[in-house]
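Thread: RRM domain-containing protein, structure

OP (GT): Posting the sequence first so everyone is looking at the same thing. Length is 165 residues per the record. Can we get the structure tokens written out before standup tomorrow? I want them in the notebook alongside the other entries.
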Amino acid sequence: MAAQQPVQKNTLYVGGLAEEVNESILHAAFIPFGDIKDVKHRSFGFVTFLEKEDASAAMDNMDGAELYGRVLTVNYALPEKIKGGEQGWAAQPIWADADTWFERQQQEEEMQRMQEENRAALQAAEDLHRKKKADEREGEKEEETEARDDPMARAEAQVLNQNGS
């Protein structure tokens, strides 16, 4: 026995639509049953309600109803199969990932920007450290040169060396 595919209890599949029917007509036909979250329309439609109970009432009342001279077929929507899930297929509707995709894109861009800032800050810190070390070495060389050229400094150094020993 094959495993039953889960249904979207808030989302209804609407088939048998006339060519004249667009998203606003579809919305107007289903709004009496409850608050609608989303309406998608091609040659068929998907109506997503905020509440499962509203979707159930709409399905009970609209399945077999006539709209623009055509008899509607209204059922719970089955999720579209997407490769990559368990046993090669994920049981998610194709539109389920849209919002999180944009969020992930923004997070990834923010992460890249932060990494670039960190690299730049690290490079600046390394450059500053190198410059400081180079300045210290220059200062030591100048002090040694001054000590060799100044007889008073040499005398002080000798006294310090004698006192230290």
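GT: Both are above now. Quick notes for whoever picks this up: The two ends are 96 Å apart (CA to CA). The mean pLDDT is 81.
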